[in-house]
Amino acid sequence: MSKLIAILNVIAWSGFWAFGYLALSSDPSNASQMVTAAILAAIGAGLGLWAYFWLIRQSEATGYAKRPNLVKKTHLEEEHANGECA
Predict the structure, then answer these.
(1) Domain limits of the chain?
(2) How far, in Å, CA of 47 to CA of 84, rounded?
(3) Please, where are the H alpha helices in the chain?
(4) In angstroms, what CA-CA distances link 78 with 21, 41, 51, 67, 69?
(5) Cα–Cα–Cα angle for 6, 9, 14, nearest 5°?
(6) Considering 10, 12, 61, 67, which has the largest number of Cβ atoms within 10 A of its Cβ?
(7) Taking the model in full, what pTM does it have?
(8) What is the mean pLDDT of each run of 10 residues along the chain (86 residues)?
(9) Angle at Cα 37 formed by Cα 26 and Cα 54, nearest 5°?
């Protein structure tokens, strides 16, 4: 499954760059072409981000990548979470 998501990631980012370039370089008098390319670029960016974050979560869950360093809770935060504070 992760290989399919990785392929989707590459295709989505390729679509983002290709359609983004078309949107930016198209003739301003042809607004429908510009808007269509911008919408397709936005869809490519959205799918690319979704796939990228999915791959990050998957690689951390399987142990392929280490989890990010997290700050440990202070004793005050632990007491508040346990309901021990007054």
Answers:
(1) 2-84
(2) 44
(3) 2-25, 31-62, 75-82
(4) 50, 45, 34, 22, 18
(5) 135
(6) 12
(7) 0.72
(8) 94 97 92 95 97 92 77 70 66
(9) 140
